[in-house]
Structures are given as C-alpha cells and as structure tokens.
Amino acid sequence: MSIPANPSTPFFKEPKPLSIRLWHWFTFLFFTASITTVIFGSTLFKTKNNISMVQEQVQSKGGSVTPDQARKVAHEFSDKLWMLHKYLGYALCFLLLWRIIAEISLSKEKKLLTRIRFAASFPVKGPEQKHNLFVQYGYIIFYFLFLLMALTGLVLAFEDITWLDPIHKLSKNIHSYVQYGLYSYAILHIIGVIRADIGSYGGIVSRMINGKSSV
pTM for this structure? Predict the structure, then answer.
C-alpha cells in the first residue's frame, strides 16, 4: 500500500494491520480496567471512608476495635486494589513497548510519523484535510501522555529503589495530573469515533475489528 496522492484523503479507510488492531483493543481493555481501579480506590475503597464501617461491623458481631486498628483493616482493602492497579500498569507498559515495536516493524508508508509528515506537508485546505491533520496530531499527544504515565508509573511502582527517591515526588505529581489528560483524550476519542462512524467515515469500528479497508 502506498501513501495516497491526495493529502486530504483520510487514513481512516485504510486496512488495519493485525498487530495494531490487537494492540488497540488490549489497550482499551487494560486502560478501562485501570481507570476502574482508580475510581474505586478513590471512592468506595478509600481508607478513611471505611474506618467507621469496619468498626460498626466488628461491633455488630460483639467485638471491639480501635480507630487505628480499623484504619489498618480498611487500608488492606485499599492496598489490594492499588496492587491490582500496579499490575494493570505493568500490562499497559508492555502494550506501549508492543506499540513501539509494531511501529518499527511496519512498512514506511504505514508508520505514524510518516503519516503525520505527509499530512502536514501540504497546505491545509478544507475541513476534510483539517480533520485528518487534527487526528494525526492527536495521536502524538496521546502517545506522549501514555509515555509519561508509563515512566512515572514505573518510578512509583519501584519505590523501594533508593536512587529513584529524588524523582519519586515529582513522578507522583506528574502521574496524578497527566491521568486527566488521558481521560480527556479517551472521552474525546470515543465521541469522535462515534460521530465519524455515523457520519462521513462509516465502518471505523468494524475496520478496527476485521481490518478490512473501505471501498
């Protein structure tokens, strides 16, 4: 497959390589699971929100427990959830590495950077070409945020490594803020795909499943 001669021709109608399709859906599943652990860890399983519940449950069974003991019990549930979050993070780091390897192994005309350079090499004319260029730059933002989340997450996961101590707090702050950028991108991406699928680019979702190009 060669890069289309018309710079306004969207890449959305191209066949999708199996490696990219598998990566896309695995990333979607693990990213969704990771977000779910963050939501639960920040709400239902937040330690301070469950201290009184632990005390009430113990007292209802005829026992007694101090607030400090109840906090330690509640914290165990939170720890287990965040441990799951860490394992999901490892999986996402693996998927990012997979994407890098896939990008290297793809033919030149299918590489992301080649597409972006091609889309940006022509004067932007009309909404079709503007939309195409906007989507391509959106990919750069996504992968940049993904890389930041992966690197800072690894620093937090390996907190016992002493030489990482100087950047631990910075990594935690970056990790906390960048997540909102990824959430925003995910929401905009889903909305954009739905609008495109029912609009001018019908079949986007099915092409990401079966890999077939649009006629």
Answer: 0.81
